[in-house]
């Protein structure tokens, strides 16, 4: 089990900053994102690469609720990935909204950040679920969200069914199914979209 201390620089990392890297012998090493990027830049011979670090940004959604987004940038050889995600206090997992953009390794990280923040803002203006008499309902006829591993399922069943995150909130698969019953007899279309694309 990879630990929370970076094997390269010794930094004790917050869980979302841990990158598990497979070694040749099949073992995993834990690296912080900075050390991961340094190694990747070396391997990809990107000598001018500088690891960008961004402070969290607070953005309000359509209901005026403020969400705090943390950022992580990872260099994947020919692409620079920038992620924005929410963290809940005391939780190891990233919960809530999560967004990703891919850019060229040589691209200006601040330009990438600007584009990602615009993407986050666009997503935050849309509400797909509404609360009605204490129950969540589908607001319109389109639902956008993210498919997640559901560790809350009974042992043995874990991972068999997804949990979805809609409007930044977790919805169990059965609850999502119950919401869809408002549309009994309707047709549906499911389109799966890469995390870095716009849903
Ligand atoms: Zn490190």
Describe the structure.
This protein is an alpha+beta fold. The chain has 2 domains: 15-124, no CATH class; 129-183, no CATH class. The protein has 3 helices and 11 strands; from the N terminus they run ββαββββαβββββα. It has helices at 33-43, 109-124, 173-180, and strands at residues 18-22, 28-32, 57-60, 66-76, 79-87, 94-103, 129-132, 135-138, 146-149, 162-166, 169-172. The strands form 4 sheets. Strands 3-4-5-6 form a 4-stranded antiparallel beta sheet, with helices on both faces. Strands 9-10-11 form a 3-stranded antiparallel beta sheet. The mean pLDDT is 90. The protein binds zinc ion. Zinc ion binds at residues 6, 8-9, 11, 31-32, 34-35.
**Using only CA atoms, what is the Rg?**
19 Å
Q: Approximately how much beta-strand content do the residues carry?
A: 25-35%
Q: Per the principal axes of the C-alpha atoms, what is the gross shape? A: globular
Give the ligands present.
zinc ion
Strand order of the largest sheet: 3-4-5-6
- Supply the number of structural domains: 2
Share in helix: 10-25%
User: End-to-end span in angstroms?
Assistant: 34 Å
The secondary-structure class comes to: alpha+beta
What is the strand tally? 11
Main β sheet profile: 4 strands, antiparallel
Unreliable spans are: none
Q: What is the typical, i.e. mean, pLDDT?
A: 90
Run of helices and strands = EEHEEEEHEEEEEH
- Helical region count? 3
Fold topology:
Blueprint lengths: L17 E5 L5 E5 H11 L13 E4 L5 E11 L2 E9 L6 E10 L5 H16 L4 E4 L2 E4 L7 E4 L12 E5 L2 E4 H8 L19
Antiparallel strand pairs: 1-2, 3-4, 4-5, 5-6, 7-8, 9-10, 10-11
The chain binds zinc ion.
